[in-house]
Amino acid sequence: MNSSFYSGFVTIIGRPNVGKSSLMNAMIGEKIAIVSSRPQTTRSRIMGVLTQDNKQIVFLDTPGIHQPRTKLGEYMMQSVQHALDGMDCVMMIADVTDTAEKDMEIARDLCEKQKVPVILALNKIDLVKPDYILTVTSRFASCGFQDIVPVSAKTKAGLSELVKVLFTCLPEGPKYFPEDMITDQPERILCAEIIREKALRHLRDEVPHGIGVEIMKIEKESDSLTEIHATIYCEREAHKGIIIGKHGTMLQTIGSEARADIERLLATHVNLQLWVKIRNDWRNNPADLKNLGYESKSL
After folding, report:
1. Which of 1, 22, 35, 234 lies at a C-alpha separation of 20 to 30 Å from 62?
2. Closest Cα to residue 4, out of 53, 59, 58?
3. Rounded mean pLDDT, 127-131
4. Are the C-beta atoms of 279 and 236 separated by less than 8 Å?
5. Domain range for residue 192?
6. Whether residue 119 sits in one domain with residue 18
7. pTM here?
8. Which helix (H) or strand (E) holds 182?
């Protein structure tokens, strides 16, 4: 009987909106990273854990690679670079429906510089025909990937094959986390991210990038009730009005949807109180970034 245990760290890399968080959530089987159709939804490195039998993958989901325009953007790109340190495998994700020259640049750079296996997951195959998948696969074949796996985070097609490929990249090692642990994100951060996800879902295009969420209070009142107070920060007076909505309807919608997800996360009833405040240019203010959890020390 083989009693060896295999474990390792896999960094997830790719452009914005290719489905990195969705794919990690799908492989783990739980929603631990927020998702939306907005670019740059993921702002920090997020850890997810997949344990099967004698194998454990620790995923590091990273922000989409982009040219930063703010200190928050710089922080996001720093988190990508830090996530590549000491990895056992790198998994690049590309959107099969929207491959661009930037994808090829990222692919060639990773395969050339990384000393560990680099796997390509071609996501969203449910949206194209099989012949087109072959065309895109052949386009990436010359980059030097150890393996290329077509997948769909939405339908879960190809996911078991992708997990098998990733397992082959794991060295023999310790069980880093208990079998029932799927993330190291504290409840405070998870709750803030859920609220931000609901805001991203409903707000106009110009608002979401200026949204930040801070949990002011999270307190278990009893075994069945948790009290949470949170502040949504925006950068302009006009944006505050949009977030609150006419007669408070938008804020109520965000709060109602967030409360439902948080109740599933915490397994208690939740009394969620939301406020909206203006913090001008907070994405370029080191103190504000630190208060909202975006700081180099947390990398």
Report:
1. 234
2. 53
3. 95
4. no
5. 187-298
6. yes
7. 0.73
8. none
